[in-house]
Design a protein that fits this description.
The chain is an alpha+beta fold. 52% of the residues lie in helices and 13% in strands. The protein folds into three domains: 183 residues, BirA Bifunctional Protein, domain 2, CATH 3.30.930; 56 residues; 31 residues. InterPro entries: Mob_Pre. Keywords: Coiled coil.
């Protein structure tokens, strides 16, 4: 049973670099261009929205946010969903990739809010099928930091803001306890595909998407080298096998020739030849007697 892969990363600025990678306006080295046409957007954009970057901005502008958004405030969270390479290939070969995509998108929308999931692109032109989703971290309710703050005696109290007001807050979405919850709930959703959660509390560390791709590229390169080595070994073994077959055939031919001269067939022929000689001698003797009687 393989493992689910779920990576979350805060985007920087307008995240143009990630958009270029996801939308293939810049083609990565580890992607097969002959398969890029198999990639597809799993979520429709609103009217007049053409791409991921515009979809992020459209959601922010239409979420009812009243508070000013800071220049360096996180506007989007990138979510990468996949599974162990062998298991994703199994899912794809079994014709279940569309169902896997639908369940993954449904989990995203139920977890982060349907309106907040502004893009989800399936990539099939890389070694392992995976989804790049984009979540705009719009939340409601009391700020996490406010909940954790203890009231200080004597400090002036201000009127609390409406907790139902929409806020842009990546920290609330990326809180440690929530990250653990995402891993748990996504793994439960993926059990039907033979995927399970990674070992909780293990020493394995979360890596960012770039590092994940880097390691995946290295593993793929090593795998290709191993395949080439195995193919060479197979070729050498096939040549050796052909030689052995030729030797076996030669030995069989020698045995056949040997049987021809020394085997049971040869002895039978010799016996028949001896009988014929006796018969001929008998006939010659009889013929000689008949000639003498005539004279």
């Amino acid at each position: 049973m393989g493992y689910v892969v779920l990576h979350l990363k805060k985007a920087l600025g307008n995240d143009a670099g990630t958009s270029a990678h996801i939308e293939r306006t810049i083609h990565p080295k580890n992607a097969d261009e002959s398969r890029t046409h198999l990639n597809r957007e799993l979520i429709g954009f609103p009217q007049n929205v053409k791409n991921r970057t515009e979809a992020i901005q459209h959601r922010i502008e239409n979420a009812g946010i009243t508070r000013k958004i800071g220049k360096n405030q996180v506007r989007a969270i990138g979510v990468m969903l996949s599974g162990s390479p062998d298991d994703m290939k199994r899912i794809e070969d079994a014709g279940n990739l569309n169902d896997w995509c639908a369940d993954s998108v449904d989990w995203l929308q139920k977890t982060f809010g349907a309106d907040n999931v502004v893009s989800a692109v399936l990539h099939r032109d890389e070694t392992t099928p995976h989804i790049h989703a984009t979540v705009v971290p719009i939340v409601t309710g009391e700020r996490r930091k406010a909940r954790e703050e203890k009231p200080i005696e004597g400090k002036k109290k201000y009127r609390k803001k409406n907790p139902n007001t929409a806020r842009l807050c990546a920290d609330d979405v990326m809180a440690r306890d929530k990250l653990k919850g995402y891993q748990d709930s996504y793994a439960r959703r993926m059990q039907v595909y033979g995927l399970q959660r990674g070992i909780e509390g293990s020493e394995a560390k979360h890596i960012n998407t770039q590092q994940y791709y880097r390691e995946l590229y290295v593993k793929n390169k090593d795998l290709q080298e191993n395949i080439q080595t195995l193919l060479k070994q197979k070729s050498a073994e096939q040549k050796e096998l052909s030689k052995l077959k030729a030797q076996v055939n030669a030995e069989r031919l020698k045995e056949s020739i040997s049987d021809l001269f020394t085997g049971s067939k040869t002895k039978k022929l010799e016996q028949e030849n001896a009988k014929l000689k006796i018969t001929v001698q008998h006939l010659e003797t009889q013929l000689t007697k008949e000639k003498m009687e005539k004279h």
